[in-house]
Amino acid sequence: MIPAPGGLRIELDVYHAQLAGLFIAEIEFDSSAAAAAFAGPAWLGAEVTDDSRYKNKRSAIEGLPT
Fold this sequence. Notes:
Helices cover 20% and strands 18% of the residues. The mean pLDDT is 90. It has two helices and three strands. The protein is α+β, with helices and mostly antiparallel strands. The chain has helices at residues 32-37, 56-62; strands spanning 2-3, 9-14, 23-26. Strand 2 and strand 3 (23-26) form a beta hairpin. The chain has one domain (2-62).
């Protein structure tokens, strides 16, 4: 857990073995407006919530997203 602005927390998932090098940051918001207004730290990458390449089942079967 990593503290974030606005009292939020970033849960950082660090993968190993076949998925080494993959890091997924999860942040829960109270609303869509709060998510849209969030200005995360510089190291936070692209939004992948709706990107099927990053779903757990697909990563487990196919490996690192391409």
